[in-house]
Amino acid sequence: MSKQHLVAVIGAGPAGIYGTRKLAEAGHRVVLLNRDIKPGGLAEYGIFVDKEKMKTGLRKQFKKILSDPKVFYLGHVSVGHDQALTLADLKQIGLSAIVVTAGAQGTKKLGIPGEESVGVYHAKDVVYHYNSLPPFSQRNFEIGRRVAIIGMGNVMVDIGNWLLNHKKIDQVVVVARRGPLEKAYDDSEFEVIEQYLDNLEMKKEIERIRPQLTAVGQNIDQIIEKFVKQGEPAEGRRLQFRYLCSPTKVIADDRGRVAALEVEENELILQDGRTVAKGTGKHAQIEVDCVIYAIGDQVDASLGLPFSRGVFVTNPGKLLADPNPAAYQPYDPEAARVLEGIYVAGWSRNASVGLVGVAKQDAERGMKVVNEYLSAKEGFTPGEMEAKIEAILGILDKKGVSVVTKEDVEILESVENEEARNRKTWDFKFITDDQMLQVIRERKAAG
Ligand SMILES: Cc1cc2nc3c(=O)[nH]c(=O)nc-3n(C[C@H](O)[C@H](O)[C@H](O)COP(=O)(O)OP(=O)(O)OC[C@H]3O[C@@H](n4cnc5c(N)ncnc54)[C@H](O)[C@@H]3O)c2cc1C
Predict the structure, then answer these.
(1) C-alpha of residue 64 to centroid of ligand 1, in Å
(2) pLDDT of residue 1
(3) pTM check: above 0.90
């Protein structure tokens, strides 16, 4: 009887799913373990709610990949310390390889006083909330009418879009360490909030920082031409920018709620060809009701891989191959050795870097490394593989986990699609795990 490999992939976002396809194409079987009931990761729960074409296109691709009989999907299963399944459980069961594609689930803080005040949030939590991911879907966010968003990448634009177009709040102030030319958002993404830009304030703001920008050789006339448009902000909702400012303190009112953000004003210096912000010691206050950090995320240390400064540690060695295997190998710095048979890819390898296409490419390159590793190893008989899958299911059963299979996901999605049609919208999601599990149970019971 021919032997096959059995690989555990942890996380069914774009990296995990496209990676799974590469493993299955090489003939391996995959157990795909996913924290969320539904697959897709940030493609399902991150990409902005109204990007219908992109979301439906990705869902279709993911469904096709999961339909491969070599892929065994187990949703509603978290892996990590104190979770339903630990990395040690998987190692003990003895799979051919373990691939961690769990994204970047840890949150970064600035470590400034007042950060624990009511009304300070991480962008990811907010994004999960408006994309209906349990339990964030049910969390109450105290937004108020004026919000400071820290950071100026595409996630800032998404949050601004939600606040201005959907929550219809009065004012969004984007707080950025550096100047307009150092923006990280794409102009095409920005179009959804551009109509709210407070052009008068924008002009004043650029004039305010004129000396600092000219000091690093930036052309003010060109900046004004690019960043200051004509007209009043639409519907009186204002989008403003505070450049060259680093948050230093969240000031709370006597109920512990955000009242203002204190910032230190920066100057710009050129360092190795890069424009870098440097504090001037001068402080200012921005009156807001809420502060949202859109400064990127870090990986989740509780997953159980060696962790340092927000990332999983990978093999510092440079191996002579393309892709470089070392980049995908978790590495124990204390023992100075790689964790044999374990790999990381996607945002778990490179937190908060790139679009879906980047995560896909990273996973595909990583799985080339994994497939190479497996080609030198002996696989398992079908009986051995079944026993290993049973062992995983046995642990989950003992812990009382309601495991969700790909057939269950299909049932759930068909009910959600039905509901969307009834409501005449393109998308509908149940917002708690209990609702989703109940719908699956009821439909199965009804046959
Ligand atoms: C706000 C926002 C908007 C974006 N918009 C776009 C866009 O418009 N277009 C675009 O191309 N890209 C967009 N991106 C980028 C894109 O979402 C990412 O590139 C991509 O999703 C990263 O894929 P990943 O699989 O590495 O991680 P993720 O998508 O985060 O997937 C991780 C998966 O792992 C699972 N998981 C987590 N922890 C565990 C655990 N302990 N055990 C088991 N499973 C676990 C999660 O349930 C999830 O399914 C956006 C990102 C953000 C944050």
Answers:
(1) 19
(2) 53
(3) yes
Per the structure block, which two tokens stand in for 318?
Answer: 């440079």
pLDDT for position 320: 82
What spacing in Å lies between the alpha carbon of 13 and ligand 1's midpoint? Answer: 5
Per-residue pLDDT of 213-246, as tens digits, reads 999 999 999 999 999 999 999 999 999 999 999 9
Distance 362 CA to ligand 1 centre (A): 13
Domains and CATH numbers, the chain: 6-105+298-404 (3.40.50.720), 109-295 (3.50.50.60)
Residue 245 half-sphere exposure toward CB, CA atoms < 13 A: 25
Q: List, for the chain, all residue ranges whose pLDDT scores fall below the cut of 50.
A: none
Atom of ligand 1 nearest to the CA of 85: 42
Which residue type is seen at 165?
N
Task: Out of 31, 37, 47, 344, give the residue to mutate to test ligand 1, the one with the largest number of ligand atoms within 8 Å of its CB.
Answer: 47
| Cα torsion 183, 294, 130, 252: sign | negative
Q: Are 291 and 147 in contact (CB under 8 A)?
A: yes
Which residue puts its alpha carbon closest to atom 35 of ligand 1? 11
Measuring CA to CA, how many Å separate 47 from each of 363, 372, 407, 429? Answer: 19, 33, 24, 15
Nearest partner of 365 among 321, 305, 422, judged by Cα: 321
Cα-to-centroid distance, 224 and ligand 1 (Å): 35
CB atoms within 10 A of CB 187: 9
Task: Render pLDDT for 73-107 as a digit per residue (tens, 0 to 9).
Answer: 999 999 999 999 999 999 999 999 999 999 999 99
pLDDT of residue 319: 78
pLDDT, residue 260, reads 98
Indicate the top mutation candidate among 42, 162, 348, 358 to test ligand 1's pocket, ranked by most ligand atoms within 8 A of CB.
42
Pocket of ligand 1 (CB under 6 A): 10-16, 33-36, 41-43, 46-47, 51, 78-80, 101-103, 105, 127, 155, 158, 303, 346-347, 354-356, 358-359
